[in-house]
Design a protein that fits this description.
The chain is mostly helical. Helices cover 66% and strands 0% of the residues. Helix 1 packs antiparallel against helix 2.
């Protein structure tokens, strides 16, 4: 894993965390006081972990270095 890969994977995971949090917040309540914050945090954290693990399969924006 290179620094470029790690940076790209972390950026991708962070974006996924934000998207998941927004989805749960938007879908769960009409007002901010009704939001189940534990559900938001746990869903967003799981989404970030899954995103990072999926990045292990490869990131199209990061070219792999060949060691021949």
């Amino acid at each position: 894993m290179s620094k470029a890969w790690l940076k790209a994977a972390l950026v991708r995971a962070l974006r996924t965390v934000a998207q998941a949090a927004l989805g749960v917040i938007g879908g769960s309540a009409l007002t901010i006081g009704e939001v189940n914050w534990l559900a938001v945090i746990s869903t967003a954290a799981l989404a970030g972990i899954v995103s990072f693990l999926m990045s292990l399969a490869g990131l199209p924006e990061v070219k792999e270095e060949k060691n021949d």
